[in-house]
């Protein structure tokens, strides 16, 4: 037996060889959760390579190999006893890179193929450097050969490959560009493995067990504390009592660890990762000249800065009201990324280099930087790097606020200027970007800008975001839009483009029964609101395109006054970001789905004609041919962007991608992804429900739950017949008999009912298969939350979600396409009025409960 540390490149490169996954092994099982964690580690290593950093490589795990019975002297074959998940995932990532650069860098693509993926001169199954177990072999081989292969609903190999394809498109984001070949280098030369090579007769399973026998791990803060006081043999007790114990008593262990990391950043190390904290500080203190006095000085400085940190995480401790107000707003924004800059500001203030007013002005720039980027849809993935670099890059010899203003205004920081802010407030679907609490915070600040003599107490007011023109408009709303539609844009397209824009959004706590009624009926409620923005909306005679855009312009001017601009603009770079967002979502289109030019335009805040022109003139956009006209047909003016490339017949390609066609030749409308569906493809599905679906966590049976339950049923009865209301009530009662509970939405405008499993009152601990919504004019719906389930065990297993979809499709009238298995599709609650459908649904919910109860508690 031999055990050694190695790299993926060293393991698989060299002469022709093969790594065989035995047939008795389980199939490939990594979910997006594991893939996302690995991708984050890969990007970190790629960034270190880009910057020339010398931090340690990332340890990925072990690979246990044994000679295959088919081994040959000229062609070594190895059984992968352990580590097939890692080897398969890394191979799929490299295959995705190879495909990503095949057109632009064919020689590099061929090199990746021959070095890591194939045995060029071998045939049949020997052609593949890695040979998965039989169940995964067809899909894996198809991706290695870049060939089409029919995908089954639970296929994780295909899902992993699509994940990396999508992430590689994201990596071309101009605000945080990642060199693809650097990513390849990170995979092959920065991820270390322990390779255990067994001889014939060795007990490889015992080896595997010993390698994975790990105990409870100490935190970075624990490790560093123990190390520091080990180096204080004479001063330890005094230092502990004077400095360490007060810090430990006022900060949690996680906060203390964060403070230690911030100390490194403030000292100028703008590349250190929090998980490398212990190693970085240990290396610093291992120098022979370091004395007990040096370590005492470090802990004393840590203690001094802990006072700054406590004010940042607990703004109520800040004595100055102006600074406290800015801290509170940043805390509400959850601006953890800005902590390095805030710590710098507090340090400068304590040293007398600035006063409270100067500190507050600098914090105003931080808030503006974050808010403007969110409104203008600048991806947040480079914010950590930007703020971590602030202490090391801060200009010298200028006032603190001016220095920060200048630093954040640099071209590569992407701080939107006034022109871009105005444009995005008019056009972008604000409601579909950023986090719910951040969207509410923007609207709250805009309301505060009216300086009403009796301002609203936002801390106690239960306000949610309301769409003035509703998300489910009735006929009267559509008539208004039809009057204003022009240039070939339908009323539906106009609605999709404007519905989520900031000009159509407000805050409200009005009675929920009127949420989808015509504007005339909303005016009275808005007029009686305590919010000035609502009274101004009510003062208009109608609510259509002109009014929405006029209000957007007014809000834009207020936003410009609230959140100061950078020192210099970023030109038209935001347009490339918009198109990048379009490329990103097209790359994420699930198998068996299509979208329209209007849907894609509404998603990015553009026009359908502009989208069509861009796709026709831009080569290499993944899945561009899956963008069809509103009727589900290939547009009359469609052409391949790369004329010299034989792309084949569009209809044949769509069919190969799982798109079905009706008798009229149109793509199946059930497989169409709307602008809201597209937003879900690139959204973070980790959080609990928000806005209208924001869910309380009541103890089942409590008075609050009964009140919300009654409101839900009243809203349902306002739009559905008595048979449907009775059927839904029966389903809810049967769900509780199964051991579940019903959480009702706290939204004042539109309520909802969540079919929950898990302990009430513990957000993030439970799971729900579906959410029921009143119709608001179009009939109630049951939303199946596949996207949420994908983050909760055991439904991270795509095969289980696929089985749930198949069971739901047994209900008469329900036909959810497989392509929506990553989204939140819905069906009409009216289908439950049929008794056979109710029994099928109860059976499906019983199956769901059983799978959850049988999950692995780990």
In short:
With 858 residues, the chain is of the alpha/beta class.
What is the secondary structure topology, with strand pairs?
Layout (H helix, E strand, L loop, with lengths): L1 E6 H5 L5 E3 L11 H20 L6 E10 L9 E6 L1 H17 L5 H12 L12 E2 L2 H11 L11 H15 L9 H10 L1 E7 L6 H8 L8 H11 L5 H15 L2 H14 L10 H9 L6 H22 L7 H13 L5 H12 L5 H20 L7 H6 L1 H4 L6 H9 L9 H10 L8 H13 L15 E4 L7 H10 L6 H8 L6 E4 L10 H9 L4 H7 L6 H18 L10 H15 L7 E2 H8 L3 H10 L9 E2 L21 H7 L18 H7 L21 H15 L4 H16 L3 E4 L8 E4 L13 E4 L7 E4 L1 H4 L8 H11 L17 E3 L6 H19 L5
Parallel strand pairs: 2-4, 2-5, 3-6, 9-10
Antiparallel strand pairs: 1-6, 3-4, 7-8, 11-12, 12-13, 13-14, 14-15
Index terms:
36 helices, 49% helix, 5 domains, single chain, 858 residues, 5-stranded antiparallel β-sheet, 6-stranded mixed β-sheet, alpha/beta
Structural features, described:
A hairpin with a 7-residue loop joins strand 13 (770-773) and strand 14 (781-784). The two termini are 32 Å apart. This protein has five domains: 2-211, no CATH class; 220-418, no CATH class; 419-562, no CATH class; 573-681, Winged helix-like DNA-binding domain superfamily/Winged helix DNA-binding domain (Arc Repressor Mutant, subunit A); 691-853, no CATH class. The protein has 36 helices and 15 strands. The chain is α/β, with parallel strands linked by helices and 858 residues long. The strands form four sheets. Strands 1-6-3-4-2-5 form a six-stranded mixed β-sheet, sandwiched between helices. Strands 11-12-13-14-15 form a five-stranded antiparallel β-sheet, covered by helices on one side.
């Amino acid at each position: 037996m031999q055990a050694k540390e190695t790299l993926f490149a060293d393991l698989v490169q060299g002469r022709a060889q093969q790594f065989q996954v035995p047939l008795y092994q389980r199939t490939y099982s990594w979910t997006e959760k594991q893939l996302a964690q690995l991708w984050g580690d890969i990007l970190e290593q790629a960034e270190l390579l880009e910057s020339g950093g010398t931090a340690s490589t990332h340890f990925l795990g072990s690979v246990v190999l044994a000679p295959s019975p088919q081994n040959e002297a000229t062609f070594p074959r190895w059984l992968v006893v352990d580590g097939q998940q890692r080897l398969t995932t890394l191979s799929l990532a490299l295959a995705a890179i190879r495909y990503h650069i095949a057109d632009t860098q064919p020689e590099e693509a061929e090199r990746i193929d021959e070095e890591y993926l194939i045995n060029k001169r071998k045939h049949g199954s020997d052609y593949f450097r890695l040979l998965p177990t039989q169940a995964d072999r067809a899909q894996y081989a198809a991706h290695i050969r870049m060939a089409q292969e029919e995908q089954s609903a639970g296929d994780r190999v295909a899902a992993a490959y699509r994940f990396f394809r999508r992430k590689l498109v994201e990596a071309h984001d101009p605000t945080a560009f990642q060199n693809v070949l650097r990513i390849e280098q990170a995979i092959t030369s920065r991820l270390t493995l322990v390779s255990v090579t067994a001889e014939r007769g060795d007990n490889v399973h015992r080896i595997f067990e010993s390698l994975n026998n790990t105990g409870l791990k100490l935190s970075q803060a624990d490790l560093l504390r123990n190390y520091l006081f080990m180096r204080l043999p004479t001063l330890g007790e005094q230092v502990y009592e004077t400095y360490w114990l007060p810090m430990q008593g006022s900060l949690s262990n996680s906060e203390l660890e964060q403070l230690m990391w911030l100390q490194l950043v403030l000292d100028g190390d703008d590349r250190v990762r929090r998980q490398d904290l212990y190693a970085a500080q240990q290396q610093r203190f291992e120098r022979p000249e370091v004395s007990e006095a040096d370590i005492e000085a470090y802990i004393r400085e840590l203690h001094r800065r802990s006072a700054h940190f406590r004010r940042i995480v607990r703004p109520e401790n800040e004595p100055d009201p102006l600074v406290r107000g800015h801290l509170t707003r940043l805390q509400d924004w959850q601006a953890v990324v800005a902590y390095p800059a805030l710590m710098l500001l507090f340090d400068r203030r304590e040293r007398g280099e600035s006063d409270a007013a100067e500190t507050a002005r600098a914090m105003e720039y931080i808030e503006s930087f974050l808010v403007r980027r969110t409104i203008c849809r600048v991806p947040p993935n480079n914010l950590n790097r930007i703020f971590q670099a602030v202490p090391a890059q801060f200009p010298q010899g200028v006032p603190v606020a001016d220095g920060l203003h200048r630093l954040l205004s640099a071209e590569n920081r992407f701080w939107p200027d006034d022109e871009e802010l105005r444009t995005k407030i008019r056009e972008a679907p604000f409601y579909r970007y950023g986090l719910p609490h951040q969207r509410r915070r923007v609207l709250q600040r805009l309301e505060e800008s009216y300086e009403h003599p009796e301002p609203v107490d936002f801390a106690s007011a239960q306000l949610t975001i309301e769409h003035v023109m509703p998300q489910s408009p009735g006929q009267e709303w559509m008539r208004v839009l039809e009057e204003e539609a022009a240039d070939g844009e339908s009323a539906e397209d106009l609605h999709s483009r404007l519905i989520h824009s900031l000009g159509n959004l407000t805050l409200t706590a009005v009675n929920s029964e009127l949420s989808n009624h015509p504007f005339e009926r909303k005016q009275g409620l808005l007029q009686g609101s305590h919010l000035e923005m609502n009274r101004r909306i009510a003062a208009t005679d109608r609510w259509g395109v002109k009014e929405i855009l006029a209000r957007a312009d007014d809000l834009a001017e207020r936003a410009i006054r609230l959140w100061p601009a950078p020192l210099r603009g970023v030109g038209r770079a935001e347009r490339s970001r918009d198109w990048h967002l379009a490329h990103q979502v097209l790359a994420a289109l699930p198998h068996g789905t299509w979208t329209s030019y209007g849907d894609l335009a509404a998603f990015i805040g553009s026009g359908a004609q502009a989208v069509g022109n861009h796709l026709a003139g831009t080569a290499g956009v993944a899945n561009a041919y899956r963008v069809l006209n509103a009727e589900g047909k290939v547009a009359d003016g469609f052409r391949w962007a790369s004329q010299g490339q034989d792309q084949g017949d569009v209809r044949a390609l769509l069919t190969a991608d799982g798109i079905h066609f009706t008798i009229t030749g149109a793509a199946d409308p059930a497989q169409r992804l709307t602008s809201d569906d597209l937003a879900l493809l690139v959204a973070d599905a980790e959080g609990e429900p928000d806005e209208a679906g924001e869910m309380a966590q009541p103890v089942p049976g409590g008075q609050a739950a009964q009140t919300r339950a009654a409101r839900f049923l009243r809203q349902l009865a306002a739009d559905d017949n008595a048979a449907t209301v009775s059927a839904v009530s029966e389903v809810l009662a049967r769900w509780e008999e199964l051991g579940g509970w019903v959480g009702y939405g706290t939204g004042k405008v539109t309520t909802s009912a969540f079919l929950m499993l898990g302990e009430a009152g513990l957000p993030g601990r439970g799971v729900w298969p579906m959410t029921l919504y009143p119709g608001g004019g179009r009939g109630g719906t049951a939303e199946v939350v596949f996207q949420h389930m994908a983050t909760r065990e055991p439904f991270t297993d795509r095969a289980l979600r696929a089985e749930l979809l198949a069971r739901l499709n047994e209900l008469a009238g329900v036909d959810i396409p497989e392509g929506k298995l990553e989204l939140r599709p819905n069906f009409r609650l009216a289908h439950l009025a049929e008794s056979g459908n109710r029994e099928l649904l109860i059976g499906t919910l019983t199956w769901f409960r059983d799978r959850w109860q049988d999950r692995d508690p780990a």
